[in-house]
Amino acid sequence: MENRIAVNERLQEDVCELDRAEHWAGPEITVDKTKTMIFEEETTDMEITAQEDEMIENVTEFVNLDSLLTWINNWTKEIKRRIEKTKGLRE
After folding, report:
1. How confident is the prediction along the chain (91 residues), in pLDDT tens digits per residue?
2. CB 7 within 8 A of CB 41
C-alpha cells in the first residue's frame, strides 16, 4: 500500500510539472485526451488532477502510435490485434 501511495504522489507531481511546463512552453494539456497508466499494477481508481482540478483518467491499456500498451506489458493482446488487422486487409 505504501508503494501505491508513493506511485500516486509521484504521478501527481509529474502531471503538475507537465502542467507548469505547458504554461511556459506551449500548447495546453488536453485533459480529455490525456491518460495515465501504472505499469505492473492494475488500478484505475487513482485520482490525478491537472489544470483547474480536472481529473485525468487512469487506464489499464491504451493504443499509442498504433501499438497496444497494457499495464502488465501483455504482448499477446497486441499480437492478436495485429493479426486481426492483417486478416481484415486481406479480405
Report:
1. 557 667 778 878 877 787 777 666 666 767 777 787 877 766 667 777 776 777 878 888 888 888 888 888 888 888 998 898 888 776 6
2. yes
Query: Nearest to residue 33, comparing CAs of 4, 62, 7?
Result: 62
Residue 81: count of CB within 10 angstroms of its CB: 14
CB 48 within 8 Å of CB 11: yes
pTM of the shown model:
0.55
In which residue are the cell numbers 508503494 written? 3
The C-alpha angle 57, 42, 31, rounded to 5 degrees, equals 10
